[in-house]
Amino acid sequence: MPETKKFLYVNRKAPYGTIYALESLEVVLIGAAFEQDVSLAFLDDGVYQITKGQNTKDIGMKNFSPTYKALGDYDVNKIYVEQESLDARGLTLDDLLPLTWEDEDDDWAEKESIKVISAAEMAKIMEQSDVVFSF
Amino acid sequence: MSQLHTVNKSPLERNTLESAITHAVKGNALLMIEDGVYGAMRDTHKSDIVSDAMDDISFYVMGPDLKARGIDETRIIDGIKIVDYSGFVALVAKHDATQSWL
Asked: Chain A closest CA to B18's CA: distance in Å?
């Protein structure tokens, strides 16, 4: 049994304007197959990636925001969003996609994946990670 | 000379919007496109730089880019006009020159 490492994916870019957000999501989904301890961090403009109501039909690009809702099915359920980044952008938790997962150890109860945390708490999560991927 | 300035970067990641506004003169127009449309949102830490320049500069924002990013029209700073692709073309045609702030 190989050692389980703590992986952290750090997302700091808005979607659509650059390819970072989509690339990150694809790497997360690929990585999910390796049964590691995965956390996602959304800070700075990265918080825009998981906002509700995205509709890309008029810009001719793929709307990949519904894919974030599938993360729970891949046991990716530790999604940290930085409070300061939301505040700076006039956003609240209500503006974000409802991301959930089902806990098999708790009769498949549906639980929230998103935790809104402070920058100081985010710093601790980063510090405690074995592998950090930045996007 | 009346210039059109276009801004395609988020004001919370780059200083592009701020610099464009600083260098635009009275009577100029500024169009926010792509990630630049985040600059049109009210209640952000950068909303004031747009509101404060509203008397001198006409602000426009690309509707399709707002929609892609899930930004409802009710979240837009008062006084910014929403345009579509033909509106973009009309703005370019109406002004003597276009400056793209990248």
From this structure: 16
